Amino acid sequence: RTLQRLLVMVIILLMYAWGFEWLGFPIATALLTMVIGILFNASLPAAGISGVVLGILLWYAFDRLLDVTLPLGAWFN
After folding, report:
1. What is the largest CA-CA distance in the chain?
2. pLDDT tens digits, 36-73
3. CA end-to-end span of the chain, whole Å?
4. Please, are residues 40 and 8 in contact by the beta-carbon 8 Å criterion?
5. Which backbone phi and psi does 53 adopt, to 5 degrees?
6. Alpha carbon of 53 to those of 3, 23, 33: distances in Å?
């Protein structure tokens, strides 16, 4: 079971890196957080809410507060 979780985490991290510029930082981070939350037995609503909140807050912190430009994705440009 642990090996299966690790394999899924590696796959989702590779998908995160692949889709980072196309999806944008907030959406890619939200999806990554949701999947990792579900892997660690979080409920679907809790994983979804934490994913959305973390994606938005991290984008705001990096882009606005730290002045690190992150992609918003193909849909928002």
Report:
1. 41
2. 999 999 999 999 999 999 999 999 999 889 989 888 77
3. 40
4. no
5. -65, -45
6. 29, 16, 10
